[in-house]
Amino acid sequence: MPSSSSPKPFHDTVRALQWCEQGLRVLDQRRLPNVVEYETFNSAPGVAEAIASMRVRGAPAIGIAAAYGVVLAARQRYRETPDTWKDAIEADLAVLAGSRPTAVNLFWALDRMRSEIGAIEGDPEPTLLQAARFIHEEDIAANRKMGQLGASLLVGAGGVLTHCNTGSLATGGYGTALGVVRSAYRQGVTRIFATETRPWLQGARLTVWELEQDGIPATLIADSAAAYLMKTGAIQWIAVGADRIAANGDTANKIGTYALAVAARHHGVKFMVVAPTSTIDWRTETGASIKIEERGQNELLNDCFARPGSVITAWNPVFDVTPAELIDCIVTERGVVRNPDRQAMMVLADAG
Ligand code: MRU
């Protein structure tokens, strides 16, 4: 991990997921920015728990971690029962699939790993490790491509706002929306704003930490300051990531994204979604059928009310759906879809 004084020529130094002989090294995102600590997981249930507990988070990173989880499952199952490991591993795939519901990249990565399993003869680890590494590398390459495409739309913009954390911590590296911000920064867009992203503070704890590691200056705002920021004219674009994009372009992303899109339309600020095509769920017609994760009340409730007998409860949906008509463009590694709807999105399916 670089120190804040080391040179950062490429504005891209953080890697939250690293494969090593013992298993998957995971940067614990619950402890950032105060503690930078990696933990190694050597089993599929361990990786599932790392996802469920949000040590690993962000749609593409969840998919990549799950792919490495399949490698660990195969290692163990093949060692235990070399003749029946292909049946036994189904239980591990189910545990990984149950770790979080909204990010479709998880299910996409598991499907891809499962499709490798059928043809394997002998020790599965080399084949599956190669497949997981490929998913990881492919994600970084997609992010760089999206960075280029998205930044080209931001040329001449005075400022950009981003929400949640969509950077190296949330992906294989570089990031989706934060990758666009990185690329735009190199092109001279220097007024970068990040929301706090309550209640988990992905913006206040992770995005600004990551930007500081890479020497990119940014201004943090309270979520509730976003509409006023737009009114001041300081930003021309909002760039966000996605956890699942329906076939018509409706986009599930971190709670608060929908409110930003509504306010952006009111203020004439452009709204960009940045996501690899692995985040598009072609089987989901519209955002109405995307499952929205609700997390525990205690992420919201002050300790004072999080006690038995209190009459105060909390509702904690951690994603929302932004309708396609509020999105100006969806940037993917296969190209940019402007004014997304079902028909416009089909270009991406064809490009695959
Ligand atoms: O609950 P999280 O932190 O996993 O939510 C993450 C987001 O909503 C991100 O914006 C999304 O996954 C895109 S990450 C490139």
Structure description:
With 352 residues, this protein is α/β, with parallel strands linked by helices. The protein has two domains: 9-139, translation initiation factor eif-2b, domain 1 (Four Helix Bundle (Hemerythrin (Met), subunit A)); 144-351, Rossmann fold (3-Layer(aba) Sandwich). The chain has ten helices and 14 strands. It has helices at residues 44-52, 59-80, 85-97, 104-117, 125-153, 177-186, 202-213, 226-232, 257-267, 342-351; strands at residues 17-20, 23-27, 38-41, 159-162, 191-195, 219-221, 237-240, 244-246, 251-254, 270-274, 280-281, 319-322, 329-332, 335-338. The strands form three sheets. Strands 6-5-4-7-10-13-14 form a seven-stranded mixed β-sheet, sandwiched between helices. A four-stranded mixed β-sheet has the order 11-8-9-12, with helices on one face. A three-stranded antiparallel β-sheet has the order 1-2-3, with helices on one face. A hairpin with a 2-residue loop joins strand 13 and strand 14 (335-338). It is globular. It starts with 16 loop residues before the first strand and ends with a helix. It binds 5-S-methyl-1-O-phosphono-5-thio-D-ribulose (MRU). The site of 5-S-methyl-1-O-phosphono-5-thio-D-ribulose (MRU) has 17 residues, from helix 2 and strand 9.
